[in-house]
Structures are given as C-alpha cells and as structure tokens.
C-alpha cells in the first residue's frame, strides 16, 4: 500500500481568498487570539465565563500567553521549504499534523451538538480528538459521530470506584478510543471566581454526565436511575470523580487495565514526569489546564524544556495551555513537545457555528502552522529545535 500523501493545510488560505472573489467571507475571524472576545457576544454569561474562566486572579492564564510572547522564532532562509509534511505519529496514532483537540467537558453548554459536532469536524480533517469524561454525550454516541476511521483518545477523570472506572474504560476501548489520557491536576475543581460569582457549575445540574449516567456499573449503585432522581445521581458522581486518595503507586491499576498507550495530563515538574515514566506511562502532557487549576502556577511553556530534558528520550512529551497560533505550535515543538493540544479556541469555534465553526478554527490553525513552518525555513515539525528560538530581549 502506498503512503498517504501529506495534507496541504496551507490551502485554506487560497480557499479563503478565492471565495472572496464570489463575495464570501470566512464564517468568522481567522485570528484565533480574537475568538474569545467574539464568543462573549454569542454565549450567555454563565457559559462564556465557564469556558473563558481561569483559577483565582487569572495570573497563570495570562502567564501562559506571556510565555509564548517571550519566545521568538528565528526564521531561516533559502531552504526549499515549499513542500511541507506535517504528519506526526504520537503514542501510536498517526496524525496529519502535530495537533490534537484537548479534552473539553460539557460542550453542550456552548452548542447543542456539543461533542458530536467536534467529533465530526475533527474526523473531517483527521485530527484526533480527546474526549472528556465530562462529555455531554456518551462514548458510543461520540464514536459514532467521529466515524470508524477517525483517531480518538479518551480522557479519564478517574472514578474512585474501581467497578465504575473499569466499566467506563471498557466502553471507551470498545468504542474505538485507543489512547488513555489520565488528568492528574483536577482531582477537585479550583477556586474559579467567574463560575462562583454566577453560581455556574454545569454538572451539578446533570449536564456533562452522559458517560457515568449511561454506565451500567454506575447505575447499579443507585437506588433510583438518574432520570428519576437526578440530584442523588449527581451527588454520587461528583465525589466519585473528584477522587481523594490518588497516589503514583495507584497508576499501576490503570496500567494493568488499559492495553493501549497511557499519557498523564497536568505534569509541570520534571520529577513528576520522571515518576510518570517509572509508573510505566507512555506519555506526559505538560499542562496547567489552561490556567484553570493552580493560580500562580508557572506558565506551561516555561516548564516544557525541563520536562523534555528529564524524560524526552524515555516517553513522549505533549503540551497544552495557551496555544492559539501556528507560531505557538512551532514554539512548543522547538522546546521539546512532540504535539500540542488546543482547548478554548475550538470551544469558541463550536460556540460560533457548531461543526463548521470547529472546522474553521482547526483549518485556520493548521494553515497558519503550515505557512509559518515553511516561512521559518522548515519542511517538517521534527526540524525544530531550541536553536529555532530566541528569548525576546527584555
Ligand atoms: C471549558 C473547558 C473545559 C475543560 N474540561 C476539561 C476536561 O474535562 N478534562 C481535562 O482533562 N481538561 C479539561 N480542560 C482543560 C483542557 O484540556 C486544556 O488543558 C486547556 O484548555 C488548554 O489550554 P487552552 O484552553 O489555553 O488551549 C478544559 C478546559 C476548558 C477551557
Ligand atoms: O472545567 C474544567 O476545566 C474541567 O476540567 C472540568 C471538570 C469537570 C467537569 C467538566 C470540566
């Protein structure tokens, strides 16, 4: 069989200019740093605050962007970078570019099609989605929308009831989710003023609980099914997934019961990355949850080089928190990430236009990435290194 050829993501630029000849503009802005402002006008304040919000004073949320601003690319010239190949293999998954959709819970609060729309948009471009445990739709529904050939990973909020945990993992595996992403940094929700000030917490109303509420093992532990006693079901689920007794040793349970690759998400310190490798994890995702958990935590990008240095030759290092543009992706790759995940930008795309909105955001990001890679003098993501960057003079 011949190798599939690389996708020319930069063509989206041509498409937009050519459509302009017929009087058609892009569905909404191509500036992904401006999406939050326009999403604010489309969403009700509770939903907007939930997506845009951060922990505490927002210091870490701002630091994530500031770290990207501080690093600058140093383009190289005359290197024949006209034909690029962005294809990347991460944790056994072939992807057309080093970009995945980060797990974002309760997507139905921004658009009724929620994760189904995201799954369709992701599949149309071959970009892997990471489905959150806090999905508005079940793993089976999302898998169907995503289709038989699309790559998909499952993010686990680790239930502290082992039967429920195993049942959810089994369903995810059967539904074709190949890689497990275990989120470590959100064993309880942080102090989030935007949500607190509006008393806005979707899953307390049973939104974003489709996976546990449809789960036979979870339902078996309820006196009444969730459809009859929502409050009791919520009160059982919330403490179950904000488990309290986790330790590195217990990762062996997941290692034993998941036969595909596992990555831990929310690693910041290089010693934690080492522990993850020692626990048999195949990947670490350097992330501060988009500044939504520890206010005052280091910018995720600033921790990436240390983590890559500590474990980059023993495990695959991925990155998220603050990625908005093609050049941001390049900076994270240069500092040691194999691929990046994006969160809020596609959630805003979903708010703007469902499946089409997510597709527009992804095509914009990938076109920008492709063009900026080439204009910086590179043909493949693997060519980037710390030497591709300089610190902005202060
Ligand atoms: C609205 C929202 C919901 C999120 N839900 C989850 C979740 O269910 N599971 C998880 O591991 N991370 C969750 N995250 C964190 C993202 O996976 C990711 O780490 C973060 O959004 C990356 O930062 P960015 O938004 O700056 O790209 C969520 C983020 C947002 C904005
Ligand atoms: O809001 C979040 O950041 C998040 O991770 C989450 C946690 C639980 C349910 C939904 C989303």
TrEMBL record:
PROSITE patterns: FMN_HYDROXY_ACID_DH_1 (PS00557), FMN_HYDROXY_ACID_DH_2 (PS51349). Gene3D superfamilies: Aldolase class I (3.20.20.70). The active site is at 289 (proton acceptor). GO terms for molecular function: FMN binding; oxidoreductase activity. SUPFAM superfamilies: FMN-linked oxidoreductases (SSF51395). Its cofactor is FMN. Pfam families: FMN_dh (PF01070). Belongs to the FMN-dependent alpha-hydroxy acid dehydrogenase family. This is Lactate 2-monooxygenase. The lineage of its organism: Bacteria, Bacillati, Actinomycetota, Actinomycetes, Kitasatosporales.
């Amino acid at each position: 069989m011949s190798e599939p050829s690389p996708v020319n993501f930069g063509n989206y630029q041509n498409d937009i200019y050519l459509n302009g000849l017929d009087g058609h503009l892009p569905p909404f802005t191509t500036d992904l740093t401006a999406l939050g402002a326009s999403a604010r006008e489309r969403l009700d304040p509770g939903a907007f605050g939930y997506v845009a919000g951060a922990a505490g004073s927002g210091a870490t949320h701002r630091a994530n962007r500031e770290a990207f601003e501080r690093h600058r690319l140093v383009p190289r010239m005359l290197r024949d970078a006209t034909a690029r190949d962005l294809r990347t293999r991460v944790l056994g998954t072939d992807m057309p570019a080093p970009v995945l959709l980060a797990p974002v819970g309760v997507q139905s609060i921004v658009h009724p099609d929620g994760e189904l729309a995201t799954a369709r948009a992701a599949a149309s471009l071959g970009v892997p989605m990471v489905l959150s445990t806090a999905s508005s739709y079940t793993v089976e529904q999302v898998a169907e929308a995503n289709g038989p050939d699309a790559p998909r990973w499952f993010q686990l909020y680790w239930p502290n009831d082992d039967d429920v945990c195993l049942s959810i993992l089994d369903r995810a595996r059967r539904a074709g989710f190949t890689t497990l992403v275990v989120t470590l940094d959100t064993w309880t929700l942080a102090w989030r003023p935007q949500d607190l000030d509006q008393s806005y917490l979707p899953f307390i109303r049973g939104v974003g609980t489709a996976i546990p509420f449809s789960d036979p093992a979870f339902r078996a532990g309820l006196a009444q099914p969730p459809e009859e006693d929502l409050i009791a079901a919520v009160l059982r689920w919330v403490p179950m997934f904000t488990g309290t007794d986790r330790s590195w040793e217990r990762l062996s349970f997941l290692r034993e019961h998941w036969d595909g690759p596992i990555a831990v998400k929310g690693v910041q310190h290089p010693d934690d990355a080492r522990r993850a490798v020692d626990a048999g994890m195949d990947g670490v995702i350097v992330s501060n949850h988009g500044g939504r958990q520890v206010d005052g935590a280091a910018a995720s990008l600033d921790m990436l080089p240390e983590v890559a240095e500590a474990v980059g030759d023993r495990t695959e290092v991925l990155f998220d928190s603050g990625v908005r543009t093609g050049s941001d992706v390049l900076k994270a790759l240069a500092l040691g990430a194999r691929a990046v995940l994006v969160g809020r930008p596609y959630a805003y795309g979903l708010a703007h236009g469902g499946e089409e909105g997510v597709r527009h955001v992804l095509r914009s990001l990938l076109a920008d990435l492709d063009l900026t890679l080439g204009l910086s003098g590179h043909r493949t993501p693997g060519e980037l290194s710390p030497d591709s960057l300089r610190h902005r003079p202060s």
